[in-house]
Design a protein that fits this description.
This protein is mostly helical.
Length: 486
């Protein structure tokens, strides 16, 4: 029988940590003097009390919670349960605070934050208390570091969507340098914190105020995209857009390479085919987009390159910032933005969506199939980063693509049944499953938000964000009867 105690123990600890993080917006409100601090005091006490009681009740009598390790079945359930439980408590300040959101809206906002999707139901961000704005940034920052650890520690073990190809790289490669996975996670956390501080310092140097620099640094490095303003990153312009683009690219690259870099191995960072393909894709898309802006629209070349670089990087990394309303750029570029949201960054980063490596493996498989058709008696083996790829990995990747398309269709169909128009339904489904942020159209496009959608649509999108963030299969596995019979 499945032992739920280790799962409850870990969830309790994480809920406790989430509650402890509420001290920062509590202090921000005290300093600002808007009288919102009781919201975080009350929410923090409730969250920490629940987390502590859950951890204590599940830890006692279960061998110290997780001291014996987790089975594959428990790991699947834990991975999904964490992202389902934390938004419940992350939503408390949003319901009790100045936003005065309904439970549906607050849960949607918290889920969007922790999954680093960046879709929002809140209007009037410019006038919100700083504590609530900081809390939204903290939710995304925690979600960013959480998904890196999940991508490096859990998904390769669970063999989700071809992630098993990184299993030996994440652990065996570091056998002589970092003997335990916990040490890798610790270094990744320090790198993540260091890059966030560096991003904040750059923003400060470029003229942002301290609070704006802090929150935007957290939502940049988490590729989350929550901003302190309704105009998103359009509030800032010029050099800040270039700086944000650079740090979004840093956040969308595999953090395992940064660990290798600080341990004296710089070569893998420059030889990683994922990174080369990711950067190459951005360059091509920026050139195409900037060319269209200069040719068809009255854009200065520098403005065209800047806006193209920022918005392309924001969408492909899944950050979801917007500096302009690109819905005004014409149907060709609108379709470009729709499809690049389905590309994503590198595996083992804070970026979301399908990920570059899966496209590389898919194309490698197609290339081998074509070679076999041309030379039936030849022996051709698909490769990734110079290494042969097993059939199990290719099958997993192809299954991921199939499930992604099916999920996208089902979510879009369900949204259409709630009364949404075709553009809103299909782009809403894509932005939720791919965890991108803004959709297309007047309602949920870069100049709008999700507040006007009905509650049913918001719950559908919340579930889609969770499914997409955990790479689909980690969630679908626990919905099968075989999982519970194991």
């Amino acid at each position: 029988m499945l032992d739920f105690r280790p799962i409850g123990y870990v969830i309790g600890l994480l809920v406790l940590i989430l509650g402890a993080m509420m001290v920062f917006p509590f202090l921000a409100d005290l300093i600002e003097g808007r009288g919102e601090w009781p919201v975080f005091l009350e929410s923090g006490v409730i969250t920490m009390l629940f987390g502590a009681l859950l951890a204590l009740s599940c830890g006692s009598g279960s061998g110290g919670g997780t001291s014996r390790g987790l089975s594959i079945q428990q790991t699947f359930l834990l991975t999904t349960s964490v992202w389902g439980a934390l938004p419940l408590f992350g939503a408390l300040p949003l319901m009790l605070g100045a936003t005065d959101l309904s439970f549906t809206d607050a849960f949607f906002e918290a889920m969007s934050g922790l999954t680093t999707t960046g879709s929002t139901v809140i209007s009037g961000l410019d006038d919100l208390p700083k504590g609530l704005l900081l809390w939204r940034g903290i939710l995304q920052w925690l979600g960013g570091i959480g998904i890196i650890v999940v991508a490096m520690v859990f998904l390769p073990e669970l063999r989700v969507g071809g992630m098993q190809i990184f299993k030996s790289e994440a652990f065996d490669t570091f056998g002589k340098i970092l003997p335990r996975a916990q040490a890798i996670a610790k270094q990744i956390s320090l790198i993540y914190l260091g890059l966030t501080i560096a991003c904040m310092v750059v923003y400060l140097a470029l003229g942002m105020g301290f609070f704006d620099a802090l929150v935007h640094a957290m939502t940049t490095m988490s590729t989350g995209g929550f901003s302190n303003y309704d105009a998103s990153f359009g509030t800032f312009s010029g050099s800040a857009e270039y700086a944000a683009s650079i740090f979004m690219i840093f956040a969308a690259m595999p953090f395992v390479r940064y660990v290798q870099l600080i341990n004296g191995k710089a070569t893998p960072l420059f030889r990683d085919s994922q990174i080369r393909s990711f950067l190459g894709t951005i360059v091509v898309l920026v050139v195409v987009t900037a060319s269209v802006l200069v040719t068809i629209f009255p854009h200065h070349p520098e403005q065209a390159v800047r806006e193209a670089l920022f918005n392309i990087t924001s969408i492909i990394s899944g950050t979801g910032y917007a500096s302009v309303d690109y819905m005004e750029w014409g149907s060709f570029l609108i379709m470009v933005f729709f499809f690049i949201g389905l590309i994503g960054g590198c595996a083992g980063s804070t970026a979301c969506s399908i990920k570059i490596f899966r496209y590389q493996l898919l194309f490698a498989s197609i290339r081998v199939q074509i070679q076999r058709i041309r030379s039936p008696h030849g022996v051709f083996v698909p490769r990734f980063d110079g290494r042969p790829v097993g059939q199990d990995v290719l099958s997993s990747v192809i299954s991921f693509f199939m499930f992604f398309i099916v999920t996208l269709g089902i979510v879009a169909w369900a949204l259409a049944l709630t009364g949404l128009d075709f553009v809103t339904a299909i782009s809403g489904a894509a932005t939720a499953v791919a965890n991108v942020g803004p959709g297309l159209g007047e309602t949920i496009g870069p100049a709008g938000n999700f507040s006007s959608l009905n509650d049913t649509a918001k719950w559908i999108l919340s579930c889609a964000m969770l499914i997409g963030r955990l790479e689909l299969m980690a969630v679908y596995a626990i919905l099968t009867l075989r999982f519970w019979r194991a």
